[in-house]
Design a protein that fits this description.
This protein has 438 residues and is mostly beta strands. It folds into 3 domains: 136 residues, Sandwich (Immunoglobulin-like), CATH 2.60.40.420; 129 residues, Cupredoxins -  blue copper proteins (Immunoglobulin-like); 124 residues, Sandwich (Immunoglobulin-like), CATH 2.60.40. Helices cover 2% and strands 44% of the residues. It binds CU-O-CU linkage and copper (II) ion. GO terms for molecular function: copper ion binding; oxidoreductase activity. Keywords: Membrane, Metal-binding, Oxidoreductase, Transmembrane, Transmembrane helix.
Length: 438
Amino acid sequence: RSSPAVVTGGGPEGAAGSTVSVADLRGPATPAEGGTVRRHTLTARTSTVDLPSGRAVEAWAFDGQLPGPAITATEGDLVEVTLRNAGIEDGVTLHWHGYDLPCGEDGAPGATQHPVTPGGEFVYRFRADQVGTYWYHTHQASHPGVRKGLYGTLVVRPREQAGEELDLTLPVHTFDSTVVIGDQEGRAVHTARPGTPVRLRLINTDSVPHRFALAGAAFRVAAVDGRDLNRPGEVREVSLRLPAGGRYDLVLAMPDTPATLVLDHDTGRGVVLRPTGHTGTDPAPPDTSGWPELDLLHYGEPAAVPFDGGDADRHFTIVLDRAVAMVNGRPAFAQTVDGRGFPSVPDQLVAEGDVVRYTVVNRSLETHPWHLHGHAVLILSRDGTRYSGSPLWVDTFDVRPGEVWEVAFQAGNPGVWMNHCHNLPHQEQGMMLRLVYD
Ligand code: C2O
Ligand code: CU
């Protein structure tokens, strides 16, 4: 009875064949004991916004800001966000990327709610139970909506905070070929006393991967996609590749001499960490382009995982390729799943408690950052190489051309969930499917 088509709308009534009524799967209305309520209203509209350099861009923005207002909470708080649409003709929703909240709060048009049309509003409510670095963005017309600015950051900190800390949230976004990191186009400078704990929260809000290198300091990758790694070791002179939609938390102690976080090996771009008391000019960062890429499959130390990924109740193979598929009723080349474009891709049916295994195969010549809503997956292997480091739980993983990834998760969050390529033009072409709880 409900239309499965995302772009045209469709509703929260649940998928055909599913007994789940997504509209009822809402978050609690109160914080956990000792928590507070974090209330925001985000108003989406078209705006002309000045980038840090003063260059004006035609944006779609929340509250006229690029990025939208930063949402922060402490573990156990209740986050309540009223979304208003003040003139985005395509409609708008809020999807909480990487946050495993009740399905009715997920902001997926065609699966969990109708898009909010001009003049309308929708209230999202969820407990901040997951600590870490996340982001939010529109899921209606997500391409072009995210590219034009309908996104912001979501950071949840633990209740017990270690005293003085330099904690920087650094979303990377490209506006019409201008790359902005945090709120700077070139190099931002942050100072703290030598030895101060520093946390850099890197968030890739673009549709393509970005590369980071930290010159002048040793660091650890403390968390990936908001989830802590087990005993991550100290590394230096490595580069990190961050998939579209993904997040890394880097931690380090403020060094005695300036260090630079370099973006995409462009030494003019990034963030300078300068110890207080340092005088004189900051040293120019070195050329980082030859630094080896840190392979997170072999980083950190093993730890117990809650299920055996080799012994799954359900096994799905997802083949990603560019193929001829029906697009708007006509055959055309499109980004597809198993040779079909959404909504013609069959739903994946699971039952609560199932261990679900995916084999994700990229047969195309482009990278596909595969993203799941409502669930983090454990990476089992890439091209037959098993992970040997910390268990790696992610919500987005980059499947490069020719690669085969094995991942697994336990179905523990009932509802109807989108699963798609986070290169958003690919998603728009149909590289998407639904995971449906029976
Ligand atoms: Cu960040 Cu379905 O998306
Ligand atoms: Cu893709």
